[in-house]
Amino acid sequence: MKLIGMLDSPYVRRSAISLRLLGVDFDHVPLSVFSTFDEFKAINPVVKAPTLVLDDGTVLMDSTLIIDYAEHASGRTLMPESLQQRRQATAVIGLALAACEKTVQIVYERNLRPAEKQHEPWVTRVQGQLDAAYAALETALQQTWTPAQPLKKVGQFAVTAAVAWRFTQAFLPGTIQPPEHPGLAQLSAQAETLPAFQAFPHA
């Protein structure tokens, strides 16, 4: 089984960390959708990261679908069992994925589009969505986890929230302030010390 994609993608990284936590054996192949486009295309013509190539050659895409498959294949889960806890965790995950999406949109606009073609009203709107996502994520996280709780058993909410935070801090430094999001900052700090996170560092 091979996981294709670069670890600077939050979607690739959350997939890799989740597979490791689930005990799924896989090889990570760090191909870029930009610099190694043709090599990636030879594996998956859609060139979408992450891509998971199963042992029988089946190609899976989308981090949430990859993790869902891995949970069923391993017979383990990173989601809580009770409906209330699952509802809270799902809310956190949704907000974290929204934050990833808005970060990607701003990064692509700033780094890939020529300056004269960048549309500032659109960037401002996306920045507002990013701010809202992290504000809501900080609030939702308080219902699921407190800094006093050591991250011994890491759930999917913690994986996705921590990966999202590290991604935004790396690509949009100074945009989302840690003092205004103390829970997320501490969650990320704890998570990044764990073996599964250190095995697949943001790069």
UniProtKB/TrEMBL annotation:
PROSITE patterns: GST_NTER (PS50404). GO terms for biological process: glutathione metabolic process; L-phenylalanine catabolic process. It holds the Pfam family GST_N_3. The keyword Glycosyltransferase does not apply. GO terms for molecular function: glutathione transferase activity; maleylacetoacetate isomerase activity. Keywords: Transferase. Residues 1-78 form the GST N-terminal domain. SUPFAM superfamilies: Thioredoxin-like. InterPro entries: Glutathione_S-Trfase_N, Thioredoxin-like_sf. PANTHER family: GLUTATHIONE S-TRANSFERASE YFCF (PTHR42673:SF21), MALEYLACETOACETATE ISOMERASE (PTHR42673). This is Glutathione, s-transferase domain protein.
